[in-house]
Amino acid sequence: MVKDVLALGARYDGLGPRIAQALAHARATQFESWADGEYQVDGAAVRALVQRYRSKPLAEGRWEAHRRHIDLQMVVVGEERIGVAPLGTLEAEPYDESRDLLWLSGTGDFVTLRPGDFVLLWPEDGHMPGIQLSGPSDVLKVVYKIALD
């Protein structure tokens, strides 16, 4: 897991061309006027999911992970906490290959995302997004799905 500010995102370009492409797209794009939905940045290799929601209490959160994608999650508006834990420390339910989704249970640590912050999450990083800080927040978030193949 990497957490940083988007303004410094170019320092991670060496992690691979798709990560570099997603970070460059994120820095160059004003998402406030985009509708919620999925957008192709580079076909199936890099996709951007634009989401608006209200952050939720910890009790409503769920741990998840993905096997075929790296997530680049960034907050555009609002704030949230995101849980992170090594996959090996969490208990897994059966993997849903069609959705590239692994539901998990357990505990972990939390980091705060505010506008301009991002996290990079690899398949070995369990995560619980969308958790409120001291109270609910209206969030505009973009999640880039970066294919590993």
Description of the structure:
The protein has one helix at residues 17-28, and strands at residues 2-5, 37-42, 46-54, 63-65, 69-77, 80-86, 91-92, 102-105, 109-113, 117-121, 125-131, 138-147. It is mainly beta and 149 residues long. The protein has a single domain, classed as Jelly Rolls (Sandwich), CATH 2.60.120.370. Strand 2 and strand 3 form a beta hairpin. The model has no long low-confidence stretch (mean pLDDT 97).
Rg over CA atoms:
14 Å
The proportion of residues forming helix, as a percent range, comes to: under 10%
Q: What is the total domain count? A: 1
- Shape assignment: globular
* Helix-strand sequence: EHEEEEEEEEEEE
CATH-assigned fold name: Jelly Rolls
| Mean pLDDT over all positions | 97
Per DSSP, the total helix count is 1
What is the β-strand count? 12
Overall structural class, as computed from helix and strand content, comes to mainly beta
Outline the low-pLDDT stretches: none
Enumerate the strands of the largest sheet in spatial order, edge to edge or round the barrel: 1-10-5-12-3-2
Q: What's the level 1 CATH class?
A: Mainly Beta
**What is the CATH architecture descriptor?**
Sandwich
Largest sheet: 6 strands, antiparallel
Q: Could you tell me how far the N terminus lies from the C terminus, measured between alpha carbons in angstroms?
A: 19 Å
Q: Spell out the CATH superfamily.
A: YhcH/YjgK/YiaL
The proportion of strand residues reads over 45%
